[in-house]
Specification:
By secondary structure, this protein is mainly alpha-helical. It has 2 helices and 4 strands; from the N terminus they run ββββαα. The chain has a domain of 57 residues. It has a two-stranded antiparallel sheet. The longest helix has 25 residues. The radius of gyration is 23 Å and the shape is flat. 8% of the residues are buried. This is DUF4133 domain-containing protein.
Amino acid sequence: MTMNQEGYPVFKGLQKPLEFMGIRGRFLTLAAAAIGVSFVGFIGFSIALGKLAGFIAMLVMALVGLVTIYVKQRGGLHNKRRAKGIYVYKNLRRNS
């Protein structure tokens, strides 16, 4: 914490991006959802098929969710359109 010219404290660390265990920003919500879904899957599979099947299903669901997050995270924090094709823009300049 440093003081600026008027004497107010300025917290420099708040400008850093949010990251927890290698998962950044908006992907934290997706990670929490993946863990929650895997827990609910564990309960469902353990009731239907037994505890071992529930545990295996929980691991598979959690790993699929986390791998999906890491793959999406490599693409960037914001969604990007990747248009395929050739685009010709006409009338970019006025003809005087």
